[in-house]
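for the record, two folds in this file. i put them one after another cuz i was lazy. first one right below, seq on top, structure tokens after. the second one comes after a little note so u can tell where it starts
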Amino acid sequence: MKKRLFAAAALLALVLTGCAQPPSPAADSVSAPESTLPPPASSPVEQAPPVEEPEPMPPTIEEQARAILDGMSREEMVGQLFFVRYPGDSALAAQWAGELTLGGYILFGREFKEDTPAGVRAKIAASQSACSIPMLMGVDEEGGTVVRASRYPAFRAEKFQSPQKVFARGGLEAIREDTAEKSTFLKDLGMNVNLAPVVDVSTDPNDFIYDRALGQGGEETAEYAAAVVEVMGEQGMGSVLKHFPGYGNNVDTHTGIACDTRPLEQFLTCDLLPFRSGAQAGAGGVLVSHNIVTCLDETLPASLSPAAYALLREEVGFDGVAMTDDLDMAAVGEYVQEGSAAVMAIGAGADMVLTSDPHTQISQVLSALDEGRLSWERVEESALRVLVWKMKLGLIST
């Protein structure tokens, strides 16, 4: 019996042992119940805003002019340096403009004398259409003794008065009003450059230039120069300060040479003041006289002298178009070397030359370039200034 009980007990113990679960390796730790909630939404990663590329800077007027210059032939480039007297016949003028790619024409009294406003507009339009690069169309409409257009009743009932009369009537305010009216008058005819104002300092009625000048001292003339240039700029009319470096009491260089022996100090303290103020006001051009100014150059007229152009650039600070007075004047001929006043003037620093004989002068400039007597760098510098002026006047789109 005991054996059976023992056997039964042993069997029960064996069964119980087999039913027991083995201990968990983490039996001593309590497991957290599994969550039935969805996992929390992760925070979106903030994206840095895209870096905007800066807008490219638009090309400057100088850069645009350079691009035009780079596409020009050498003949076209040289042609831009010539401001030519209008040859009279409209068909011939258009032919010259197209053949030579001239920088511009200057119209004189004969172009208005027997014509009408409509006729002048047609002349100008014909030349502009013929030239591949828009032309400067200039005129001397100073007021008083030099009035190429308004002196004729077909163009204006009364000619424009001299700066002296306008100033006496109402000071600088009257000058501004007169300048605005004059610019509107010329633009209506198709002109875009008035070879004015005359900023020579002259207070002596016996001076040749007196009637064309303001007739005031250096500082007053400087204020006048700035006022005129500013109004012309507002009207889109090109201005030309003349006659650099100041005419003083010299004789008429249309008929012979004038020799100016005044000391440099007088130019620095008086005569250059209007040129400086006019340049600062935005004048596009400065016309250089044929006077021999001995304190700068004892042998050559200013228009042919490197010293005169250096004074204009360095002392006055002018960076626009420097042009000669008319190279066909009697005062120049005896000083010309190798037959070409244009070669001498451009070599000295002129950007444009005024002449009635563009074919001969352009041919001589091209020959001088081929022979190394004139550098292409000098010509390119001037052609670039001419193109920039045309852009500022709105003649060439920017």
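(here's the note) second protein begins now
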Amino acid sequence: MNIMKYALLVIGVFLLTQATAIAGQGAKTMPSTDELIKDIPQLSTQDTFTKDYDRYMVAKAEGGGEAAAEAGEGKQEMSEECKALRRDPQADIGHMIKIECEPTVGQMAKLMDNPLGNVAMLYTQFDLSRMENPTNGKEANKGNYMGIAQFPKGLGKNWNIINRIIWNVPSMPLDDDKIDEFHRGIGDLQGQTVVSYDATVPPPIDAFDGRTTGFGDIYYNGLFSTKEPAHKFENGATFLWGLGFDLGFPTATEDILGTGKWLAGPSGIGVYMGPKWKVGALVQQYWDYAGDDDRADVNLMNLQYFIFYSLSDTLSIGAAPNIIANWNQDSSNKWTVPIGLGIVKTVQMGKVPVRLGFEVHYSVVQPDDVVGTKYNLRFYVIPAAPSALFGWMK
């Protein structure tokens, strides 16, 4: 619990720092345009849009905000249409790219908020889970690196398919040789990682002895969704939904790191995208249909719910924990239900918008008699690019 207290303290200090910075900016006197750009070299009419945008961002960073930065543009190449689009949080990013108008970080953050949006993202996620073995009271850490390549593909005029390819590198607190000896699996579904789990009786070995690290199973998730929101509210919010399917492939390098099964099942998502709140859930069901007959059958559900509140265009608080149901277990061992809190910040790194996030999850419900997750620390880095940059995604 000391790790959790420290993590929550870090989140609290960060939020206090952000609030102080915002308050300080509001109290400052707006500098004149001349003061903002006096040290910026004059650009010729032959300068590219990229240099013009860099000058815009420098002027803004000096403290003048959007209006002063645009005033400092003078006779530069950024058009009035581009300036208007950059001030519009609902602007069509695809149209902006088409006219060579670079979106703001806030606009890209809003696009990345939408799990069904027209944006390509590469997730790099690290989870550190504290596992508890109720048969002997021991605890140990499970680590997992997860990569997700997400990209949309247009299907005609009205539909998209959102593709997600998921790979994992788990590190389990157990020697795989001991699992082979008893022909058993041990693990849970943490994030997108499904691990075969047969624990109808207490394990006849020490569940936390040794460690096995390697490549895990690969998964694919495809979600069909309409290009336009299903519903628009009077406050500017939207509701979106998608339906699709999941596939799992037994690519794990060790038995303990995967299911040993070929998996398939349905999936669905619904999300409310409001001016401040983003609330929704992604539900995925996995069944095995082929694979190693000596391995446990798979019948698992992963429900990842997400609740986030925007403090600014680029800063949010909230979390996206994973509720797990192992339908093969009895009622006392079926559910893992975590709650969580975290912070998410979108920044510009060079020309690439990047999302940084840190979350803490605690399982208020966990299995009584089998190994389960007590709490989890999650850190992720997500670079993104509008799908309009890639012709093959249209």
